[in-house]
Amino acid sequence: xxxxxxxxxxxxxxxxxxxxxxxxxxxxxxxxxxxxxxxxxxxxxxxxxxxxxxxxxxxxxxxxxxxxxxxxxxxxxxxxxxxxxxxxxxxxxxxxxxxxxxxxxxxxxxxxxxxxxxxxxxxxxxxxxxxxxxxxxxxxxxxxxxxxxxxxxxxxxxxxxxxxxxxxxxxxxxxxxxxxxxxxxxxxxxxxxxxxxxxxxxxxxxxxxxxxxxxxxxxxxxxxxxxxxxxxxxxxxxxxxxxxxxxxxxxxxxxxxxxxxxxxxxxxxxxxxxxxxxxxxxxxxxxxxxxxxxxxxxxxxxxxxxxxxxxxxxxxxxxxxxxxxxxxxxxxxxxxxxxxxxxxxxxxxxxxxxxxxxxxxxxxxxxxxxxxxxxxxxxxxxxxxxxxxxxxxxxxxxxx
Length: 400
Fold this sequence. Notes:
By secondary structure, the chain is mainly beta. 6% of the residues lie in helices and 30% in strands. It contains 3 helices and 18 strands. The protein has a 5-stranded antiparallel beta sheet. A 5-stranded antiparallel beta sheet has the order 13-12-15-10-18, with no helix packed on it. It is globular and about 65 Å long.
């Protein structure tokens, strides 16, 4: 390594020596043990249609193993696989590929002696993890069952209908990515995942992109970065504390910080942004989702999730929106699912509120989701340009 390489190595060593940790339980974009893609949608029938892309980066020189899980919009896991990352590595995923069973090809050091599958850089480490296959391979052939599951259609391998039955053909859901210590076929909702599979090193970071070629638009935001209490930090979550995966555990074994519950998001309904505002919302159902049964009938016991929301215009006029089951006339609220995108003036599903805000082009929305959540605003100018921005968290994840 020449002098410039040595200098770069020292710079990277300082940059990722652990000093990036910010205030635990406050939302911040620092290397984390879990990443959340709060919502995805894919036009699976059109190779040039809407899709969602995301990247996972390793912030450390040490090799890292990441476990990717796809979930439906009703919080049912459908697919999980491992991705091996050498030091400072990056892997990019297109949800269209994953839904069609095309997984990234990575391999640990002993299974890649020619260093052609997962190349090791000059500043990177390459190592081994237990239980890993020779390379990542696609799951057993399920036909279109995975796609059907994410469309809310009948999918026998998953026990029926495990997502809300939207009728537009789009596949929807969300994604989690965890640092793990070994390869596994378990999902975070399975017993044993946090007592031998999951790890607690805060090393991952990444971004996601909504791509709509037909609409001539794309948006990018950071994945939600969820830190863990790791051994060097000396912190710990105790039994009874809120944690990100707490709904699956009798105690806080996941040691992941919880997300906030209350958010403020600006909206635009006209002017330059003629396409209006869409709100991407992920929510914690607070309980395990069992199979939702036959499509069009049964729902998870937590459905619909409710919220309290107020809209404000530029003159500070306010109005209550998102009236749920406790209101007259009752509705399903604005964000009844675990993962969804809502366009202002429309509803997520039939029977849900249309989120018609106050008159005027500009304003902001205050949303209290009661449980941990995440919100992102997407603003578009029809077929010209678009932007995405995370909402502002108004409370602290550990003390909502």
